[in-house]
Amino acid sequence: MAAGDIKIFAEKHNPRPAIVLEGVDDFVQVDAWGTDRQTAADTVGTITAWVMPEAKDASYTIIAAGDVNADEFIDFGIISGKLSIVVSDAATTDLDVISTAVVVEPHVWTHVAVVQNATRPTLYVNGVAVAMTDTTATDLTSWFDQMSGIDAANIGILDANTSTTQDFAGAIGRVRHWNAALTAAEVKNDYAERPQSAATDALQISNWEWGVDLLDSWAGANNGTAVSAAVLDPQYTNMTSQLKVAETLVADDISMSFDGERMFAVVVKAA
């Protein structure tokens, strides 16, 4: 852009606490979560998260557990706007399931979930099961019980097989994990932020809310450690995301306004 160029943004005001990532080797380390679930030999599970990526044409990990020295991992992520779950067991891809359509857009808060019910995984977006493609279906039942070398787990990056990949750029809101295959109604409850039953709550393992710290507020107590540029933002919004990638300068003329549930910003570039 050149001096005098104008960019105008109009976004829904929908703030959420989040961990904000630059996409270059920054993430939240939760190793104990991965090793604990492997030790527990979980056969079922549900992971939910709020996500706001910065780009559509990229591969991002939301949360993953892996073996740093071998091709073994469980990776819940986004591939070019499609929700994905991949499980690799001893260098063999057991399952690779991806949403058939693009379901996660940049600069928009989206609730995502994966449910493994010991038969197969199901992917949900904003509380609704989505059409899926079984790219690999060697063993659709694969979960933590089939892992043997998990020694790393992270929110925002995949660490496995001697490399870190799929660095998340953008924001990841609350992340939850249950040692249970939640029903469609229970996934919908999580999306709508309605309370679950006491029985369902009893099976929750972890809850990273990102309000004021990196603590896991649930039974697992698998507290996170921020690595590199990962930072907390208590009110990350669609507008924050847009302005973050707009490469604004101190000298730019920026004006903002608010009308009900929408925020407006006008950026006049200085150079």
Walk me through what this model shows.
By secondary structure, this protein is mostly beta strands. The protein contains four helices and 21 strands. Strands 2, 4, 9, 10, 11, 16, 17 and 19 form an eight-stranded antiparallel sheet that branches. Strands 12-8-7-6-5-13-3-18 form an eight-stranded antiparallel sheet. A three-stranded antiparallel sheet has the order 1-21-20, covered by helices on one side. A hairpin with a 2-residue loop joins β7 and β8 (92-99). The N and C termini lie close together (7 Å). The model has no long low-confidence stretch (mean pLDDT 93).
Distance from N terminus to C terminus (CA atoms, Å) equals 7 Å
Quaternary form: single chain
Which structural class is indicated by helix and strand composition?
mainly beta
Query: How many helix segments?
Result: 4
Tell the overall outline: globular
* N to C succession of SSEs: EEEHEEEEEEEEEEEEEHHEEEHEE
Q: How confident overall, as mean pLDDT?
A: 93
The number of distinct β-strands equals 21
Low-confidence stretches: none
Percentage beta strand: over 45%
The value of Rg in angstroms is 19 Å
Main β sheet profile: 8 strands, antiparallel
Which percent range fits the helix content? Answer: 10-25%
